[in-house]
Amino acid sequence: MTTSSIRLALTLAASLAIVPAAFAAPPTKTGKTDKGSVLTDAKGMTLYTFDKDTNGKSACNGPCATNWPVLKAEASDAPGEGYTVITRDDGSRQWAYKGKPLYTFAKDQKPGDITGDGFLNGAWHLAMP
């Protein structure tokens, strides 16, 4: 191989390594409910946002996080298309959409359930696409 063909091969290999990250699947799906389209987790469970969260920081910890399980992010997950990863108080990682941390609700039993919408005097909301 010539020097130029080696460079070309290396450049091609490097560019292909970037492609999976650029086209990573979003951490949510879209589901249908009685109130329209909502963001869901991989199992189709409705996702929610919390008014007390500020500046991409979760205010839902301890017993709150037991009732409102977070949409967990892994260390290898990369943000994109409106999605970011925040670090929680306990050091774990959580997905956020448009700066709002995402949660499921423990009392939702099946995909399409939206029993958490309006909970706590309207502080919990459906996460909309």
Can you walk me through this structure?
It is a single chain. The protein is an alpha+beta fold. The protein has one domain (27-126). Helix content is 22%, strand content 23%. The protein contains 3 helices and 8 strands. The strands form 3 sheets. Strands 4, 5, 6 and 7 form a 4-stranded antiparallel sheet that branches. A two-stranded antiparallel ribbon has the order 1-2. Strands 3-8 form a two-stranded antiparallel ribbon. A hairpin with a 2-residue loop joins strand 1 (29-33) and strand 2 (36-40). It is globular, with a radius of gyration of 19 Å. The chain starts with a helix and ends with a strand. Residues 8-22 have low confidence and may be disordered.
Topology of this structure?
Elements: H1 3-22, E1 29-33, E2 36-40, E3 48-50, H2 63-67, E4 72-73, E5 83-87, E6 93-97, E7 100-101, H3 119-122, E8 124-126
Condensed summary:
The chain is an alpha+beta fold. It contains three helices and eight strands; from the N terminus they run H-E-E-E-H-E-E-E-E-H-E.
Bulk shape = globular
| Percentage of residues in helical conformation | 10-25%
User: Cα distance, first to last residue?
Assistant: 50 Å
Number of strands: 8
The structural class is: alpha+beta
Strand content: 15-25%
Sheet with the most strands? 4 strands, antiparallel
The figure for the number of domains is 1
Number of helices: 3
Q: Helix-strand pattern, N to C?
A: HEEEHEEEEHE
Look at the structure and give the mean pLDDT.
Answer: 87
Signal peptide: 1-24
Keywords: Signal
Protein name: Lipoprotein
Pfam family, one: Lipoprotein_15
